[in-house]
Amino acid sequence: MKQIKIWTMCVALLFLASTVAIAFMAAPSDASPGQANNLLNEENKACTCFIAAGTGSATGEVIASKNRDLQQVQVMKFVDPDERYSYIGSMTNKAPGISQGLNEMGLSIGHTWMPVSGYDYDGYSPFMVNQLVMEMCANVAEAIELIDNLPKREGATYMVADNEMAAFVETVPTIYSPDIAVEIVQDGVSYHTNHYLYEPFYSWVIEDGFSYMWTPSYSRYDRAAELVAEAEYVLTPELVISFCRDIENFGNAKPNELKAAHPEVPSSVWVNGWPGFSICNTRTVSTSVFVMDNDYPGLLSTMWMSIYNPCYCTFVPMHNAMLKGVDLANSELEMYTDGSAWRTAAKLRDSNCYDWGEIVPELEAWESDAMTANSEAEDLAIALIEAGMVEEAAELLTESDIGLALDAIDFLISLSTCACDVFAVAWNEAIAKTQK
Question: What is this structure's pTM?
Answer without folding.
Answer: 0.88
